[in-house]
């Protein structure tokens, strides 16, 4: 609760996008102990930091604070003598001694962001107070700031220097009780060239590129560039991505797109992305200031997305749905479910009904995802954990089935008979398992299991699907009322054809298991059939493991 409380007070002021790329140094005006005649003008600074200790009346102080963006880091006597005044402006006041309180009267620290560069401000007044340092330092690490601004008293300063030195972050310390009268200065904070890394948090290949493939390149340049990760499942980030794509005239998009003032990388190939990325970084570092790309598109993101949407045709959306429907986790589930129903000796009609129910559950879930329901769930950190668990469990089951099928093949090659062969389970085990499943799984519970599995698999598998078309359709459905009906129609088209590959797999297994010719071939070629089945299970399992490891 303490840490979450500290994180809940984060506030950003005056974010200037200019396409998200820095064009000048960040300048902050700092002043304190000032008389009315010595208050600085600070015409060009982005933020004014007030250290208090003035010989100002409250009216004079209020008048000065009425213009410009201000942050108050008051002295101890200010807090004691001017509590009502400061409390009226409490969202601008930082007193870090209150860190750890469940409901602090002022901000324990303040986060200021400009051009994607982040500065944290701290104001420590009383060295006798107990600060939960480990908790505070971890909260700072979580913010990943570029610069720290730490104000404290002389007796407090040795401890502050010791604690903040462990973070290895550029820090400016100010001893407030050694400041001269009418102190003021402009602090220039260095900026690094910014790379914007757009990805989807629910896309396994995106996560792998972000967490495993590209970090080695970024690590080599960490002191010279700043990488900002933007999840484009968030509407504001998607709009920024659209603006950049429009400005750079990008026609071929991918699940990961990286932009700098000098160019962009649009790639999914793990083998080549780092080479392209390094070229982009070098080009960015060598780029002259006046040649940096400044994104000032005259059209807003909504207009750009709407224009893109108008170019869509039903055939394009259908094709995207078919391609995105090649879903290994859904395939694995339907293969497992049909084989289980066959082993249990279910009727042909029942197997067909349950398979169609599963496909219908996938369709409905993806449609609901498309209109924004469950979107909050997919932005949570637990989403990735659950998806990996589901992938891992399914991959494990498939590897087990592959091993049992391979065991069957070897048994048949050695013994020349099919006795005791139902994926390698002894007859006694099969009888007991069948009795247990028939007892536990009634018709109703099998249908419920089909619906539940279709829902769960769809939720966790909603990864790199429709990276061009689906986000655009979803955006239009939510943001542009004029085309909302067409967007819903396209969403129905997309999802209807999304489940066609799944239905083809299901029907292939279903009719294949009923075909006399195939059954006869399987009985005459038991060894080949079992090896082929094991191979299918292994391929599906390996595809799922990519999702676990990404």
Radius of gyration: 31 Å
User: Globular, elongated, flat, extended or rod-shaped: what is the shape?
Assistant: elongated
Count up the domains: 3
| Main sheet characteristics | 4 strands, mixed
Low-pLDDT residue spans: 1-24, 419-426, 515-519
Mean pLDDT: 75
Estimated helix fraction: 40-55%
Total E-strand runs: 12
Which secondary-structure class do the elements indicate?
Answer: alpha/beta
Number of helices: 23
Beta-strand share of residues? 5-15%
Ends apart, CA distance between termini: 31 Å
Strands of the biggest beta sheet: in what spatial order?
3-2-1-8
Word description of this protein:
This protein has 550 residues and is of the alpha/beta class. It folds into 3 domains: 2-189, Purple Acid Phosphatase, chain A, domain 2, CATH 3.60.21; 194-298, Glutaredoxin, CATH 3.40.30; 309-549, no CATH class. 54% of the residues lie in helices and 12% in strands. The chain has helices spanning 2-7, 58-65, 76-81, 83-88, 133-143, 157-165, 204-213, 215-220, 235-247, 273-286, 301-310, 314-324, 328-343, 348-370, 375-379, 381-415, 427-440, 443-461, 469-479, 484-498, 500-514, 516-524, 526-549, and strands at 26-32, 47-50, 70-72, 110-114, 117-123, 147-152, 171-175, 183-189, 194-199, 226-231, 257-260, 263-266. It has a 4-stranded mixed β-sheet, with no helix packed on it. The two termini are 31 Å apart. The model is unreliable at 1-24, 419-426 and 515-519 (pLDDT under 50).
